[in-house]
Amino acid sequence: MTQVTESASLRRADRVPETVRRRFNWPHLIGYAAFLALLVYGLAHTYWAFGGANFPFGADDANPEYSAFEHVGRAQLAPWLAGGFLFSAGVALLLALPGRRRIPTPVLLGAAGLSAAAVFCTLADFRILGNLAYVFMLRFSAINWTVINQLFAVVSVGLLVASAVAYQRRTSGACTGCGRTDSGAGWTSPESAARWGRKAVYTAVVVPLLYASTRWAWALGFPLGISDKLWEEGKEDNLWIFGAALATMGALGSLLTLGLVQRWGEVFPRWVVGLRGKRVPPALAIVPATLVSVMVTIAGIMYIRLHFQGSFDNQKEDWGATVPEMVWPVWGVALAAAALAYYFRRRGMCKRCGRG
Q1: What does the pLDDT look like over 129-152, one tens digit per residue?
Q2: CA–CA distance from 200 to each of 194, 286, 289, 340 (Å)?
């Protein structure tokens, strides 16, 4: 009898950590994190709507020429943004609360997607990507207030999208940790992901190389896609040398994308001292690829938006300075797909549901 009691006690003790782990995990907490971030930002815009100082967007932007609301002041813009972020906070809370909502799932997921699209296409721009260079140079003082707000908005709606994914999994009967179901893996199986992931990787490699080719041409003395006048102006300021250096960094980064379908992307090659032969942690490839995909997509969308706003109407001779960037969303989407395929191939057996 004592042995039976002790065995039952041990089984209960084993289940406690598992229960705690299941309760306090990202699918459970991500919605509340999104709600809190969006609520705080909605209240901040409410403060600005009532006349608060340091509004970061629209005509108050340090560089309003990049903004979708270049000629819109705080009094007109802040109330709309406050309403939008507070509405998104409400959506995040509905996604986070246990159980299924009476609101149809496609409506909730669509609202989350629209919130993210609104931020990506209007508030955020290429300065997030550009200021990344300042971070590497440890020049944090060069990052302006608008970029900080753009980054907060992007992270907030990113959390919202993640909470929408968690809600969809929870209400559809899929594993909240990996998204697998009993109906089979389908396009998410390692074999299928290897096929379409390879295409995504090659696309993510080619597009930035096309962009880099124009910058290399300028540095070598060929004004490809720009007027002689603009090329001479850039030459005097050594702008093309700097541009070629940045393009080279982008090209090297694109070549690293090949690791998502190559063996050296899963096992450290022999020339990596101290790590040779060891398994590459999936997050080491997935996290940077995902972040870069978001930033280049946002930057490319900005160039497309500026084109439709007529900002480049007087620069038709200098198409090489703007058109290559308009293809960046293709690069971003392909890179995100490549990272997703890499994740599907390497995720292994789920610790939550046991599916593999």
Answers
A1: 888 877 776 777 778 899 999 999
A2: 10, 14, 12, 10
